[in-house]
Amino acid sequence: MMVTLAKLVIGIITVLSVNSTNGYKPIQESNKLTALYTSIDTVKDTKATAFQILENKCNVCHQKRDKRRVFTLENMNTWANDINKQVFIKKRMPKGKKIKLTSKEYQDLLTWISSTQNNQNGNKI
Ligand code: HEC
After folding, report:
1. 6-24 pLDDT, tens per residue?
2. Binding site membership of 16 for ligand 1 (Cβ less than 6 Å)
3. Distance from the CA of 22 to the center of ligand 1, in angstroms?
4. In angstroms, rounded to a whole number, what is the distance separating the alpha carbons of residues 83 and 47?
5. Residue 125 and residue 120: Cα distance in Å, rounded?
6. For residue 72, how far is its CA from the centre of ligand 1 (angstroms)?
7. Distance in Å, CA 75 to ligand 1 centroid
8. Which sign does the torsion angle of CA 21, 27, 29, 35 carry?
């Protein structure tokens, strides 16, 4: 009788301790998810900021002079490498003398371009 009772107590303790370690997991998972959502939000903000620049400093001209390259939120990521090449490597864009990018705009574009290469987990977005 005592042995059975002891087994029962050990059983309950085991179940409780297993449950309590399991109970901790969802908290860890939800922290991971929060971090993931935060990084997705940051990427979205980065992209929205870059889009405003493309819209104000690039599309204004492309709409008239290079209609095949009017940047949108949907297509801009597929243009990221070309934009990097024209703006940062060859420095051909923005074309002409009238439209200039501020240093913050250069920085914001670069931040977006790098975000299209990798997210925090090293995956393409
Ligand atoms: C005042 C006009 C004008 C502005 C402003 C301008 N572009 Fe252009 N862009 C052009 C024209 C015209 C072409 C096509 C002919 C050429 O390549 O020169 C072009 C072509 C391009 C190309 C393709 C070039 C190639 O050979 O592959 C890219 C990429 C590009 N622009 C990016 C941008 C970006 C990014 C901005 C803004 C930061 C920008 N452009 C601002 C006129 C402009």
Report:
1. 776 776 666 666 555 555 6
2. no
3. 56
4. 14
5. 10
6. 15
7. 15
8. negative
> Using CA atoms, how far apart are residues 35 and 32, in angstroms rounded to an integer?
5
Distance CA 62, CA 59 (A): 5
Does residue 107 register a pLDDT over 90? yes
User: Kindly report the CA angle at 115 between 38 and 54, in degrees rounded to 5?
Assistant: 110
For 71, residues 6+ apart whose C-beta sits below 8 A from its C-beta are 51, 54, 55, 58, 59, 62, 79
Give residue 122's pLDDT.
Answer: 60
The protein residue whose alpha carbon is closest to atom 36 in ligand 1 is: 58
What is the distance between the alpha carbons of residues 82 and 103, in angstroms, rounded to a whole number?
20
CA 17 vs. chain centroid, Å, equals 38
**Predicted confidence (pLDDT) per residue in 21-74, tens digit:** 555 667 777 888 888 888 888 888 999 999 999 999 999 999 999 999 999 999
